[in-house]
Amino acid sequence: MTTTLDQLRRLSPILEPGQDGFADYLNDRSVWTAPAAPLAVALPESTAQVAALVTWCAEHKVPVIPRGTGTGVSGGSTARAGSIVLSVERMDQILQIDPAARQVRVQPGLINADLRRAVEPMGLFYPPDPASMAESSIGGNIATNAGGLFCLKYGVTRDYVISLEVVIGTGEVLRLRRPVPKDVMGYDLASLIVGSEGTLGVVTEATLRLIPLPSDPVATVMGRFDAMEPVGRAIEDLFRAGLDPIALEFVDPVFMDAVARYNQEPPNRARTSVLIAQIAMTHPLDDPANQGRATEAVFRQAGARTVEWSASAAEADRLMADRRLCFTALSAEGPTVSEDVSVPRTELGRLLVAIERVAAQHDLVIATMGHAGDGNLHPCIPIPPGPDGDARAQAAFDAIMAEALALGGSVTGEHGVGLLKAEAMSQALGLTQMVLHRSIKQAFDPAGILNPGKVLL
Q: Buried (b) or exposed (e) across 5-16, using 16+ Cβ within 10 A?
């Protein structure tokens, strides 16, 4: 062991078992994903150090567990026995901003919100905004193809990746795609890396697309609903009417109460669910006020109990900040498993009703929130006390995934597969697709050292 650690120290800064902070790198925020002790936590500060580490691990058949900031909830960065946890947190620099090309080149440890703040004074905007944007890293966002509250209008992480520098499982450093407007040489290997959860390579640099900074939201409309059916109806009718919000978010009463307790505010005594539509002027000829009034009419016609407009930009920001707090607020009260299922938007109402049915069948409280505009919901299950609490929660977790698949959807929209959903993904995709996945994995990682056991069983 001492010889191994001596070798690793020559390749990169490391944390050894027993050192302060070592345990902080063993898991993400998921439940049911018990970590095992790695050989060490590596904290490389350059691409060369990442390449040296991966090369050494390939030669010695040591698993590598790539890690951003550990905000995932699917077990994607859970450590395994005898592995090296490779954290990119020290590689956190903005290397170049090119306002003319609307591009930025960054290291993977850069925090999402820090990137957004850095480019906004130049009139530029980086749109992907997961709820964890204040903590999550660009590398982690790329690993899971993170979305966020505004991906309805602007798209997800994959839509903003221009090129990547990646260390694959042999230790080789590859530049995938070129930072030019058009590049169609060969297969799009960069897109394979996005969403691969560290199983194909370790991202060491990314060139990302920026867009002009949108105006502040000028209309934020919140409808309160007494039942799930009218929520689904409002969502369908909104898009059928040709409206184009930048965000359309859903929060149920359980989450609203949890956020109120977290903020030490009065509870939601009406027990209503809310839809929050946010509209911004993205073109000089847009009329957001008209869209806001039309949104209000749709909500009322669908059956909303009340409809409110934000009185100010500060109030609109508060509403969206509370939405981002949902999982943090609920998980602060006890162990909580976060689902992440996605269905066609037209099936969202049926999924909401199905989640209520699953909760009743398993005698559970299930809190649901998510991105109503693109059909991506996050039902969250507080694990009840008692000897059968985990089993009931697991059964509900599996049942919700089955309901999403039956409605033509996916078992994950943005959180990734990790450990928690590998079996479900295998069943959903079938043998032929899984064989193709394994063939791709073999090509990028012939020794099988990159995040083994994640995504692919």
A: eeebeebbebbe
Give the pairing of strands 40-42 and 84-87: parallel
Domain boundary (87, 111, 134) is at 87
Domain contains 199: yes
Query: Domain residues for 27?
Result: 2-87
Strands (E), 210-333: 211-212, 219-225, 247-251, 273-279, 306-309
Same domain, 82 and 138: no
Average pLDDT over residues 357-368: 97
- Two tokens at 365? 């409280």
Residue 44 Rama label (left phi>0; alpha psi -120 to 50; beta): beta
Least Cα distance to 341 among 272, 426, 398, 276 occurs for 398
CATH code of the domain covering residue 316? 3.30.70.2190
* Cβ pair 150, 127 in contact under 8 A: yes
Strand order of the β-sheet with 84-87 is 14-15, 40-42, 84-87, 64-67
Q: Across the chain, what does the average pLDDT equal?
A: 93
Q: What pLDDT digit, counting tens, does each position of 285-314 carry?
A: 456 677 888 999 999 999 999 998 886 777
123 and 101 assigned to the same domain? yes
**pLDDT 10s digits, 220-268:** 899 999 999 999 999 999 999 988 888 999 999 999 999 999 999 888 7
> Is 399 part of a structural domain of the chain?
no
133 and 113 Cβ atoms separated by less than 8 Å: yes
Parallel, antiparallel, or unpaired: how do β-strands 124-125 and 64-67 relate? unpaired
- Burial class of 211 by CB neighbour count within 10 A (0 to 12, 13 to 18, 19+): middle
Question: 154 near 374, Cβ under 8 Å?
Answer: no
Instruction: Give domain status of residue 8, yes or no.
Output: yes
Provide the H-helix boundaries in 120-244: 138-144, 151-154, 189-193, 228-240
Domain with residue 56: its CATH number is: 3.30.43.10
Phi and psi (nearest 5°) for 306? -140, 160
pLDDT band at 77 (very low <50, low <70, confident <90, very high): very high
Of the residues 274, 299, 328, the one at which a domain ends: 328
Nearest to 381 by CA among 65, 14, 31, 122: 31
- Please answer whether residues 88 and 137 qualify as being in contact, where contact means their C-beta atoms are separated by less than 8 angstroms: yes
Whether this prediction's pTM lies above 0.85 is answered by: yes
Closest CA to 378 of 26, 25, 29, 24: 29
